[in-house]
Amino acid sequence: MSFVPTPSPTVVDQTTLMKKYLQFVAALTDNNTPDETKLKMMQEVSENFENVTSSPQYSTFLEHIIPRFLTFLQDGEVQFLQEKPTQQLRKLVLEIIHRIPTNEHLRSHAKNILSVMFRFLEIESEENVLICLRIIIELHKQFRPLISQEIHHFLDFVKQIYKELPKVVTRYFENPQVIAENTVPSPEMVGMITSVLVKTAPEHEDSETRTHTIIPRGSLSLKVLAELPIIVVLMYQLYKLSIHNVVSEFVPLIMNTIMLQVSPQARQHKLFNKELYADFIAAQIKTLSFLAYIIRIYQDLVGKYSQQMVKGMLQLLSNCPPETAHLRKELLIAAKHILTTDLRSREPLAYSTLADLVHHVRQNLPLTDLSLAVQLFAKNIDDESLPSSIQTMSCKLLLNLVDCIRSKSEQENGNGRDILMRMLEVFVLKFHTIARYQLVSIFKKCKPQSEMGVVDTGALPGVPATPTVTTPALPPPPPAPPTPLSFALPAHAHGPTGVCTQRFPDFGQPGPAHTGAMCGQPAA
């Protein structure tokens, strides 16, 4: 079938144009039409697709093209070489399907399209799988189809990808394979789209070379992995009653994923791929964002993995490449959402409960347990992430343990003295911190600046001196006229020491102690 470009739709009427494009689509399943010709036909359909969707014959056109598109995609062979016309054609057909407006004309076709898209997630190339994912998202958001077995199969497929991720990371980073000269690697060998030069006749030195661009398999792609969490979230929003227990199974997989790291040795290797590594970090951060969404729903379950979660978040902050600022921003946003949950408030509550328990049973605890309690609560005193009330409570508990540590040390012949010295050191360091960073602000809160003048921070231990600012002294206020004191000294005598025991009144208040020389009374 020969290909003749169609003139502008302003010249040819809409009916003729639609018939022409129907012939182009019908040629997709014609084995006698070369893939190159099919590609040119679909390129023209794609370029004029807005005119197609605005045509009065659009509904009829859709009835014909959707079955043809799906038949072509299912019957065709999956390709992993970007230069192949077949791969370019498959990708273009998927892009056209994605561009079809999600209105009522498409509703009756949504189920069949989704069935094919879900199946392609497991077999197609990275390029095509990414388009399939966008189609799945759009159709579910718009039409909200009833839950099907395909949804459960999709969730199982995603869980399997997470389970296999450690092996994938090892393959791509820890044990990268060297691509032999003049060979085209398999899609399982490459973690991202990779171009290689291959000689057409290797036995000749002047042989022509061709470029082959290999696309990784979608199920092993880190770019695809980064897009999967948002679909799982969408599925939960649509089918939460049916898949609540299934989604809970993702929590341990998420924790394992964010804990994964590429070894320092692998990152220094000459075959280390920085771009692929950025894809890996992006997939981890997207997975953490997934956790930030479901954390309130599965809070008790997530709490069991809190140590892993915190460690994984810190690792991501440390490992995120400096050139990927957008990923670091997304990581911080996810961390912020996680920290706004009740998991944050559980830590102070846990410390408070534990402190009460230790306080009530302190007399019965052996010296080793008392030492552990001191070690734990001594750390809390300088932990700025904890409320000041918890720091104060920790100080009080340590003071209440002093006598117990002394007595237990004597009974068990233990190292109570070392524990007490450690406690003393903790308090001294805390006072040093207060003096250096908090005392000045405390003074400023106690007195107005005008009354206090300038605080000499150099007088505080550990605080560098600041230049003294001389403020001109204000003239003293005029003295108030003296108030006459009217009181009578009662008759009294001094003791043998000569110190008067009499208190004389001053405005109705007891006066100071005084000697006989002050009041003129003789000693007794």
TrEMBL record:
Q: Domain of life here?
A: Eukaryota
One GO biological process term:
regulation of DNA-templated transcription
Record's GO cellular component terms: NuA4 histone acetyltransferase complex; nucleus; SAGA complex
Leader sequence segment: none
Stored InterPro entries: ARM-type_fold, DDR_Repair_Kinase, Tra1_central
Where are the membrane-spanning stretches? none
State the name under which the record lists this protein.
Transformation/transcription domain-associated protein
Organism taxonomic ancestry: Eukaryota, Metazoa, Chordata, Craniata, Vertebrata
